[in-house]
Design brief:
With 317 residues, the protein is an alpha/beta fold. The chain has 11 helices and 12 strands. The strands form 3 sheets. A 7-stranded parallel β-sheet has the order 3-2-1-4-5-6-10, sandwiched between helices. It has a 3-stranded mixed β-sheet with strand order 7-9-11.
């Protein structure tokens, strides 16, 4: 297999590459990274670059919005499969500048789907639980058939990409699957995201901004558990299907922040409540019975263990 990893130097993409090589020790899959190398790739960039060089993983700078670059890459490396991690993902950025989210997440994904259809490739789309919008944690059963109700330009762009991917399966028979995952945490995550942002602010004694009252509820999953789910779907998922990937951890933002503060022996006085974000979703909470029952996936890393490991790693940095 010659597998094209778009966004392979980003947080989840690079963890996925390491998961295949270090954890699963898969040797019969040739990996090829296609990455725009935006600001989001530059956490531990030298390490990522050296790792790819040492493991003979070609890294090409390219933009999924450029159809010529995409097709040239596929032909050069005889690609037969794509997993699309490439995306603009930060909600705040999408509120400040929606256009790049539409270009990358919608038009860029469409370019990849065109290529998958043209060259008869297997295609997997990485999506998000945010396409379902805010849900009631006590009453809503958020399975893969739950209604779309995105709130931000980011989640709307991902919902659009999902629908386009499904249309390619239905119209052209393109070999598509989709995974929708909850909040990830782990190594190499950009500090615009909540957990690394809190850690960075604590280390530098900077006030930690908390939107509204901080009572928003989120699922959290270790990035390796997410990668395991993606691989199971990619290898054995039913073509044309969507699979949720989530965890058993549902925690408020403010409690998570306080837990990190206490672990790092900092003071809660660093917390600063600020005006809530526009259209801020209250809760994301996935039902993941489909991937568990059909593909045998299950969460392996508890939130407590995963967070402690991450915080200990950050302590050493």
């Amino acid at each position: 297999m010659n597998l094209m990893i778009t966004g392979g130097l980003g947080f989840i993409g690079f963890n996925f590459i390491q998961y295949l090589r270090k954890d699963l020790k898969i040797k019969n899959v040739n990996l090829f990274i296609f990455d725009r190398m935006t600001y989001a790739t530059y956490n531990h960039f030298d390490y990522k670059w050296d790792y790819c060089y040492e493991h003979n993983i070609p890294v090409i700078q390219g933009n999924i919005c450029n159809e010529y670059e995409v097709n040239k890459f596929i032909e050069k490396y005889n690609i037969d499969s794509i997993i699309n991690f490439a995306a603009e993902t930060h909600v705040d950025n999408s509120i400040n500048g929606p256009k790049i989210f539409i270009e990358t997440n919608v038009l860029g994904t469409t370019n990849l789907l065109n290529a998958a259809n043209k060259f008869n490739l297997r295609f997997h789309q990485i999506s998000t639980d945010e396409v379902y919008g805010s849900v009631d944690p006590n009453n809503d059963i958020v399975d893969e058939n739950f209604k779309y109700n995105p709130s931000s330009p980011y989640s709307s762009s991902k919902a659009s990409a999902d629908l386009i991917a499904l249309s390619y399966f239905k119209t052209f028979g393109t070999k598509v699957t989709i995974s929708r995952c909850t909040n990830n945490y782990g190594l190499y995550q950009h500090d615009e995201k909540l957990i690394p942002k809190v850690i960075h602010h604590i280390k530098n004694s900077i006030s930690i901004p908390v939107y509204g009252n901080g009572m928003q509820l989120r699922n959290w999953i270790h990035v390796k558990d997410h990668c395991d789910g993606v691989w199971k779907i990619f290898m054995n998922g039913k073509i044309g299907e969507i699979y949720n990937i989530g965890s058993d951890t549902l925690i408020t933002n403010i409690q998570l922040i306080k837990d990190i503060i206490h672990h790092l022996d900092a003071s809660e006085s660093l917390i600063s409540f600020v005006k809530d974000r526009a259209a801020h979703d209250f809760c994301y909470h996935l039902n993941c019975e489909k991937i568990k029952n059909e593909l045998g996936w299950k969460q392996q890393i508890s939130f407590k263990d995963g967070l402690n490991e991450l915080l200990e790693f950050e302590d050493e940095e």
